[in-house]
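Morning, I've got a small favour to ask if you have a moment. You're getting the sequence in one-letter code plus the fold written as tokens. Thanks so much in advance, here it is:

===
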Amino acid sequence: MVLGLHLTAELPIAEKKMTLRMQSDSDEAGTTIRLIGRIRSEHLQVLKEQIASARPRVALDLDEVTLVDVDVVRFLGACRAEGVEVLHCSPYIRVWMLREMGEEKR
């Protein structure tokens, strides 16, 4: 019998990587929330809380966003409609947002 044995599980590299990081910069003009990595629907509640606490002027900087899902695209479209500025949005996300917004207006 071995006492004091400590086992650790090594996660595959893909699971170890951070999916999303948020950095917030505020000044008298407003707040910019910089998003880095993959944004998934499970991140939206925290992002909503960040936006709510950063009012009145908020910008989302998507320069380092690599991947989003459909719920995130719809959320970003709703943010734009509410006056949140979406900066450095990749073309594929912008086109997808426009498509989703067009479908909602039908």
Remarks:
- The radius of gyration is 18 Å.
- Helices lie at 13-16, 44-53, 70-81, 91-105.
- The chain has four helices and four strands.
- The domain at 17-105 is CATH 3.30.750.24 (Transcription Regulator spoIIAA).
